[in-house]
DNA-binding transcriptional regulator, MarR family
Amino acid sequence: MNFDDPRLTAIGLLAEVHAGLMSRFQPVLGAAGLSEIDFETLIRLARSPHQSLRMSDLAAQTGLSTSGMTRVVDRLEREGLVKREACASDRRASYAALTDTGRERLSCVLPQHLRDIEDSFTGLLDEEELETFLDTLRKIRDVVRPCATAGAHGFREAPARS
């Protein structure tokens, strides 16, 4: 057995980079009262059409179970950061939608978060390296998390507004 296999090195480096980045990002997110999954949920909603997603698509995008996503959205809803909206065409489906308060919370966090990303990640790469790296990450993501963009592309009916 070759313990110096480059496949082990690749996955080890990826895990180390992820853990290191998350530890650098946590103080800013924590100061805003957000966990990593809270932030991921809010930013995915903010970057989606109508700033909302079907709950099932949001669960698929984050890799959480439906019940796990329900608990996250319940917590964010109690804080006024998201709200649930009924689907106009399917009574069984519901959407999670970003609220004005949720947008404000993101707006407070994003400037420092983007500086942290620049300082410890994207700013270390030149434009061509970053483009290649992003293409590579998407290629891998599309294999290991094919639902990561569920509901984010193409025309979708807007949720019913109350």
